[in-house]
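Known limitations

Structure tokens in this collection are predictions and should be treated as such. Users comparing against experimental data should check residue numbering before alignment. To illustrate the layout, the record for histidine kinase is reproduced below. The input appears on top and the generated tokens appear beneath it.
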Amino acid sequence: MSEPLPTSGSLRRRLTLQLVGSGAILATVLFFVVLGFARDVAQQTHDSILLASATSIMDSVSVQADEVTVDIPYAALSMLGNVSDDRVFYRVSMRGQVLTGYQDLPNSGQNLRSGQSAFDTLSYKGDSIRMVNLSRRLSLNGAPADILISVAQTREGQAAQLAQLSRSALQLGLGFFLVATILAIWTAQSSIRPLKQLTAAVSRRGPKDLRPVKRPVPSEMIPLVLSLNQFIARLRVSLTRSEDFIAEAAHRVRTPLATVRTQAEITLRRVEKPENRASLREMIRAIDESSRAAGQLLDHAMVTFRIDSLERKAIDLTELSNELVDRLQPIAELKDINLHFTGYSCPEITGDAILVQNAVRNILDNAIKYSPADSAIQVSTRHSDSTIAIQVEDEAGGFADMDTDALTQRFTRGENAVGTVGSGLGLTIAREVVEAHGGTLLIETSKSGTGACVSLCFPLA
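Generated tokens:
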């Protein structure tokens, strides 16, 4: 199992947080902009009403019989009362003298010229008021006289209106933030969807599918796909070289060793001195050990290589087992071993025929190698509703006092292997092949109790 890769956080989460954060900032800006705009509009509207009221009062001022008269119309003050329930104050003054109205009302329009108006926010009797001052010059007794109209109103209603506007602006900002959050999540999902699709497309490939990736991707992902295709190309070349090397190495290692062994056997027949014959026998034994070790090492390398890229085809295990028994029959006869096959018609499995043949051959090699002369080896195929098994039973003593799980580990040999040529890879190869096909390797004592029974169990296709 591969180790978990180190991570630097989630790209989707990071993108989502950035977009949501941007949405929050924009929502806050929107809240203050809308609130400020609404406040300005409300203030301008209120000021316009105040100015209209002051203008209405100013229009009611007239000069009659060299006296200034003021007839304040009802509408001048009632228009302010219609806006809110705030209190209204007014004052009409000329040359600093109050003609009518509230005498203690703050005076902030003394420097106004005729026709000018000015607005102020002041405090009056503990309340905040909004005041407008409007000035006009009249002719009184042939001399100019400046009339100053002051109209003010408390701001409780305006404050309530601004509070309502603030709530509306807040609701607008929250709504904008909610929409921005939804769009941010959708955008983040959409942005990484091409990466997920590329990952899924590569993950669906089989072990031997080393084609370059040609799936359309966004321009930002092109460097990643190019690097992936370059890696696939290098891997394809490396695997081809490894496969060729294993095949070539198997040929070049086995052929010279077989030649040396043949020459040693010929020389053994010609030599008469006991010490020389003993040396040649040791040489032949060493050659056999080297040949078998090299062969099984190369077989194990081939198995390891092919396991990652199984060539799955229909396999008739009965036919495969029968062919191997026929092929190894001469070797068994040299040791006076009766190698017998009992086959039944079994369903086919799907797998790599070369690997399965290699696994069965290693089990048969072990059985022949460890079985004594004048013994029997029984090979059979059996199947159930879900599995099909190849069983090999011998009379080599079995593994009664041994850990059978440990025997399937690399370079591990049983106690009965002392003095017998071997490398400890036969059962390892068989186990790895069976497990690669989803099956199990069972090592048990034979029914007769005189040997072992090794079963290669494969699931049915």
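For this record: The two ends are 26 Å apart (CA to CA). Residues 255 and 291 are 9 Å apart (CA to CA). Please report discrepancies through the issue tracker.
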